[in-house]
Amino acid sequence: MAAGRALAALLAVLLLASGQRLQPGASFTISLRTVDNITVMITLRPGVSRSCEIRVKNVIRSELKIKPGENITFSFTCSNPEKYFIMEIQKNIDCMSGPCPFGDVHLYPPGLPRLNRTFIWDVKASTKAGLELKFSTPWLRQIKPGEMCPDSISYNINSCIDMATVNIGTFCRNGSVSRIKLLGGGIMSLYLPWDSPLTTAGFNITNRASIKRLCIIESILNEESSITLMSPNYPLGFPEDELMTWKFVIPSNMRASVLFHNYSLSNCERKEERVEYYLPGSLSNPEVFKLSDSQPANIAGSFNLSLQGCDQDAQNPGILHLLFQVIVQHPQVDENVTHLVDLSKERNMTVTIHFEGWPSHLLLMSEPVCLICKDRRTCDRVLTLVSGTVYKISFLCKDLSRLRITAEKSISCVDFRWCQKKIYSLSVPKAITQLPIQLHKFIWRLLASDLINTEITSPSLKLQQHVPEQRCNTSYSYSIVSASPETELNIGIFCPGGSIEKIQMRNNITISLKTFGKGFLNESNHQDLKMSFVPHIKDECTFTVSPNPKAKVYLQTPSSPYGLTPYVSISWHVIMPSKQVARLGFSKDRMGISCETGRAYVNIKEEASGAEETVRREDELLPKPRNMYHNFWVNISNCKPVDKTELTLQFWVALADRQIDLGVIIAVVAGTGILVAIGLTVCCVKKKKKKNQNPMVGVYNANVNTQMPGKEGLFTKGRKKNESHVYAVIDDAMVYGHLLKESNGSISPEVDVYRPFDGPIGSLPPSPPPFSFRKDIKHSPNTEEPSPLTDTDHDTYTFAHQKSEQLEDNNDTNEKNNGDTPSLENKEQDVSVE
User: Fold this and answer.
1) Is the pTM of this model over 0.85?
2) Can you tell me whether residue 130 is helix, strand or coil?
């Protein structure tokens, strides 16, 4: 049924259109009375060919002018003259020399052809009188120059002062402007398209007393709405030293707010450009504001707004213009609810409350408006709060979810002595989190001199790097950027709940906390990001990582996916848990770049005694996955790549418990057996050496008889009672040590001594070779495992060798002194046998 009615309506429209189509040769008669003072002009539309013409008594014309008192019949040579011709009907009204025809304005004369037409009423009046244009409903709505009205029906109003014409504005139907008062005369124009059914002008003219200003524009706002108004001549300049007023009629139970969106100021010689308000209930009317001030808001009821110009500089006058918005709302539930924002203890911080999408998105005039007020009359769509102050703010907004907070804080260090021991908390202040507004972004700018670097830590939560294989799913994340005057390095995006304990960076650092959804309000109490300034570091950036035993950790070079900055070196220090082994692997086989200048390297080194450093260039295969048994370093250094190649590397670390298999146990047992055998062998060799070495050198005792014990009369005491068997023994090294002294005076026996390194292993990353040239480094095989440390005997053994000449001298001496008498050595052996 409804479809049938729609089809019938469409057919009716088509029939009406076909009825309006002129038949070739159809004639029109226009008769103008002299007293009406009306002139009709029919002309070709600009830029249209003369495919259609006007015929008047068999005379072909391209245009036609009908003056007051004339009666002319004419026709068109085509059936669609609206495509080629336009019509202008102008009525001159002289109020200077006689009475004015006040009252409703009619569209006269009747019987005009259906062309695009413009009705013009030119009213001449004295500046001592006022002219009022009162519009019937629906009222008018002002539009910007160049805009079109939805129904193509528009009004244009100009004011005439002396010889000057001021464009008050262009208006469409369906608005809030109910009347316009002009000083002196005016020119009113009504534009109608050729198919418009409008038969009345929609306004009347009334004579009023002088208004003593350029114009007064009155708007009636009975319900929630938003209107946009402009100063006369906008966007050109407001007349010099002129005054105009906007009058807003608003019910007392509604609230109005004024927002200035666009304005410019002229160069004043005298006076000052300003706006004045007459506000309901104000004790200081008129209240004067600069155009740069925040304008009044939350106004209860009707008010007036006036714009005052100044005396301009004749040489450089400048331009004064203004575009503003008036928003009318019902009183908000939270209108009288204030929120305390205490920034008195903060330093170098700003907090901006704004609408969603600011500043890139420009809010349309038709969109719902949320206002932020720092007092009852100072409200705006964007409000900035500064540190060191306490604010009480309120909101004029139906939906607070449309608002966001963006904050920024600067921390700087110029002298390292003053900031080396300070630890700064990078957490969002409670003054912000307690507001009923979602935090969009909090930015920390960390500024330091060239020799001072920045360290950020997350002691409890730790950080996780956001990569495709390991995405952040928390309610907030950190974006970290390192910037210098020459380059900018995007360190990456991180979120809490990872394995990165510490990041050290050079240059100035920007950390941006960005929230996702409302969950941040619950997690904001657990923030633990800290920052401190540290001495100069070798690499551009150094990460300290403690892998999570339960998950594989993915780490990626900064500035992905755009590639690492040329000549930049990045290091990762991976700390291993006890009784764990790490599996280290790269996500691709090669670096994927070609170097124009220098070389790109990957360096891997364990913090273990004797561990070899693994090095790969950009033209070599990256190491295959391997086991790491100690803390280790990964260093990636870039060259200057050729065009269209970028260095982007990703590696992973996975932990597992150390497994001791049967082969290891057998190897340990075998190794222990070998060590025991070596120890026994050394002991036997020592004993054999002692037996085979020359007799120890004794101290001669002249009071002791050295004859054989067979002649008992020579001994007054028995063997057990005398001290003939007691010797003061001196080591060979003590007797012959002077022969072993070197030029420096130290004793250096002929020895081979192994002294194992017992000092600490360094905590610095492996030093990559210089970029210009690097020595060839022994490449360890990809599958090579680090050899386990063996137990070693830490004792130092010194073997002293006597010279052959010394042995001969000793033998000769014994033979000379004793002859057939047994030597001391033989005697000692005999005693031992006994």
Assistant:
1) no
2) strand
